[in-house]
Design a protein that fits this description.
Largest sheet: 3 strands, antiparallel
Strand content: 25-35%
Mean pLDDT: 76
Number of helices: 4
Radius of gyration: 25 Å
Order of helices and strands: EEHHHEEEH
Strand order of the largest sheet: 3-4-5
Low-confidence stretches: none
Length: 188
Amino acid sequence: MDVPPTSRESYERVESDVDHRNGAYGRHFALKGSGEVGVKVPRDRDGNFKTQVIPRSKRYESEFCQDLSMMFLTGVSTRTLSMMSKRLIGRKISPTEVSNANKELIDALEDWRTRDLSADSIKYLFLDSVNFDMRIDGSIEKVPVQVAIGVTETRHKWVLGFQAGDKESAPTWPLSALKWSCIGSQTL
């Protein structure tokens, strides 16, 4: 990272340029498998230089963030993930950081859930439920997750939507949640 933020030599003065290099500051960035690495990030007097190598507010690589989310989805608690991080990246992360990593996953899920379905020509629609063990108020309970699968004319299957339900019966299926305005003009 000890490279000048411009193409000219270090501390070279140019009359037309009022911004100058102003040393560097230290940052720690955790890499999976390597642990925490100390990095010197250059800065300029105006504070406009932004490195493209390490994202501004990130403290560990994005692959580790994805791993945290996947472990959380499999049922590992935030406290356990916090303890495991010491072995994975060389530093213990707080349960709050684990929760923040999961917010990205929740945002990605919401984008998928509200995606446009009008481009898919759905010929058949299958509705089914799958029971999963979920922790609710401190106890483990079986909760049905209702899944809607659409089959296109080319016989490709797409998961159109899913949600946790009360039981596997017709009244618990709110089909309007699948954005029927997008695929409602099609004959199923």
